Structures are given as C-alpha cells and as structure tokens.
Amino acid sequence: MSINAAITGVGMSDIGRKTGRPAMLHLVEAARRALDSAGLTRTDIDGICTYPGKADNSPGMSPLGTGEVRNALGLRTRWHSAIPDGPSQMAPIMVAAMAVATGQARHVLCFRALTESSSQTAAQRASIPGSGRARLGGWYSYLVPANAMSASNWAGWMATRYFHEFGMTREHLGMVATGQRAFARHNPAAVMQAPLTMEDYLGARMISSPLGLFDCDVPIDGACVVIVSAADAARDCARAPLTIEAMGSALESQETWDQRADLTTMGAHDACADLWSRTDMKPADVDVLALYDGFSIFVPYWLEAFGFCGHGEAKDFIAEGHIGPGGRYPVNTGGGQLSGGRLHGFGLLHEACVQLWGEGGGRQVKDAKAAVCGMGGGFIAGSMLIRRD
C-alpha cells in the first residue's frame, strides 16, 4: 500500500551551539552531503520544499526560504513549496512525497535550517512566539497574562495532567532523557556528549513544573536535508531507497494545546491512527522509533499514539527498558533533540534513515528494516512509516 515515493539521501551539516556560522553555510554543507548520499548532482534536483518558509517570528528559527536556497545551490526546479501550516515539521517531506508521486518532480530537496543558538540574547529568545514583538493576537494573547509564552509552559500543563491521571513520575521522564543521552554518546554529531545520570537529571533546575532542564530540547545552529524521490527514479540512486510505506496527518481537535477533549492525548494520536489505516504493517514490524522530543513528555504520548503500548501504559513500557539502548523499540538512537540538538524533527528522520541504511556505528540497531517517525507536539502532528526492502 506504499505510495510511489522514497527517501534516497540525507545530509546534516556540522551542528553546534553558538557557531556564528550563517544559516546558508550550514544549508549548503547539508545539501552537499545529502546529494553525495543519494549519488545525485544538483542538476538532478527539480523540486525544493521546506518548513515553514522564511520567517522572523522567532530568532533564528527559519532564516532561509526556498528562493534563496534554490539560487545558492544553482537549482533549476519545476516545483517548489514552503509549508507554514500543515502536519507539523513533517509537512515538507509529506508534500514532497505527494509531488513526486503525482509527477510534479522527480527528486525533491527538503530542508530545515536554523541558527537559534547564535540568535538568542537575553531579550530575544528562540522558540518564544512573538519574541521581541509588541503585540500578539489569537490564542497567544490569552497566554500573556499567565506569562506562559513558552512551549515549555504548555508541555508542563500536559505533563501535569498525564502525571495525575496515570501515576507517571519525573523518574519515568528521566529514563527517557538518560536513555537518549546514552545513545548520543555513540553519535559524534550530538551536541550533548557528557554522561547523564538520574541524579543529574533530578538535580537540574526546574523549567516549567514538572519539566526540568533535561526535559527540554537543545537549541542549535545547523541544517538538515532529506531528498525525496519518485519510486522509479529512486532505483537509480546510490543506495537502497527507503520506501515511504504510509503517512498520517489527521487532526480531530481544535488547533490549540489546551482545548483537546482528552488532554492526555495529542494530535499524534489522530495522525498515527490515520497512518495505520493506510498500511498492512503493524507496530510489531517496526525496528526503530524516531519520536518528536521537543520535551521528554512527548515521547510517552507518541509511544501510545503509535500503539507500542496502551493509553496510560507508557510509564511501565519505559520502566521495562523497551526504548533505551538494547531495548526492543529503541527511541531516538542519535540522542534525539534532548541530546542530539533541535532540528525540529528533521534530525530524527535523518537518524531513522541512517539506521535503516545500517550506518549507525556504535548505536546501530541490528537488522533494522522499518522505522516510524513522528513530528510535532500539542495539537499538531505528522507521522510516517518508512522501510528498506
């Protein structure tokens, strides 16, 4: 039931904190690596797509648009798109897959570039909606009186409700954070390499109760490129294509974090149910999990949404060791965004591809053939199932 699209190459720039490098240098480096990965040249690329497009609503969050990247890389494209409103950060990958499946392009370069780390100052904080602006409207205007302008506040609300309903504790989230740090220590590209103990985790400063410092992803400078190709074109690429088996993007709630009927679920639950309805594969067929971890609390939500455990059962699933090194369902084997660095989901998909190509080094999952990737938090989500034939 797969669509006629595959991932044929991925590339990531040398990421870091406070690099001072222009976003375009990161992007060009990632693009070259992705093209080399796929065995393609820039003349093969006839489509380009990104999330969310060039924007100035948060420092360093999206400094590059499709036009300037196309010009910098010397591309001549038949199709292009930027997706500010769609199924999370996964939107450009999904739209690119539909573009190649319908003949709009043969090889689409999808990119995400950030300079959030270098762009932050005391007055200009990355990922704070409206940071540095005088006026906000819509849902955000209701958050101003509560001084709740950070997504850490909203994720903290979710975690508090989930803790109350199902008895999850900070130690359970600590297992998520320490497990991903253990993976990161085998990933030379990860920005956080030092060992992280449960004592370290519990002793770190609180950010938005019950979430502490190590429950939050790490802002970085960097870029990631994913090349999506038509199925027939993919057969001519340098490595085995990774077939996009299914995608899910359903949304059945209001587009706010706090008005969902069941606050112990996210948009992920809608998107994942949509995905499984489009394939004969099952969770038991999956070897690698790439789950959006803007905050550690998102991981148990995604585990339940994808059906790896029942609703409210994630704490036990985590405690039993299923998601860490050596577990049956390893999560975020590159360190995720908690330790690898925040590329808004693109880095997670990059790692899933690395695993399916058997290039994970000391963190490689044995005989990995299929992976799920989920991106987004709160009401917004996109899900994808990819496999190596």
Query: Order of helices and strands, N to C?
Result: EHEHEHEHHHHHEEEHEHEHHHHEE
Which ranges are low-confidence, i.e. pLDDT below 50, for 5 or more consecutive residues?
none
Q: For the record, give the distance between the C-alpha atoms at the N and C termini, rounded to a whole number.
A: 14 Å
CA-based gyration radius: 19 Å
Query: Helical element count?
Result: 14
Total beta strand runs? 11
- The H-level CATH homologous superfamily of the largest domain, spelled out, is Thiolase/Chalcone synthase
Q: What's the number of structural domains?
A: 2
Helices and strands: which structural class? alpha/beta
Fraction in beta strands: 15-25%
Report the CATH C-level class of the largest domain.
Alpha Beta
CATH topology of the largest domain: Peroxisomal Thiolase, Chain A, domain 1
CATH architect. name of the largest domain: 3-Layer(aba) Sandwich
Sheet with the most strands, sense and barrel status: 9 strands, mixed
What spatial form do the alpha-carbon principal axes imply?
A: globular
The average pLDDT score comes to 94
Write a concise synopsis of the structure shown.
The chain is α/β, with parallel strands linked by helices and 389 residues long.
For the structure shown, list the relevant keywords.
2 domains, Peroxisomal Thiolase, Chain A, domain 1, Thiolase-like, Thiolase, Thiolase C-terminal domain-containing protein, single chain, acetyl-CoA C-acyltransferase activity, nine-stranded mixed sheet, Thiolase_C_2, globular, 14 helices, about 400 residues
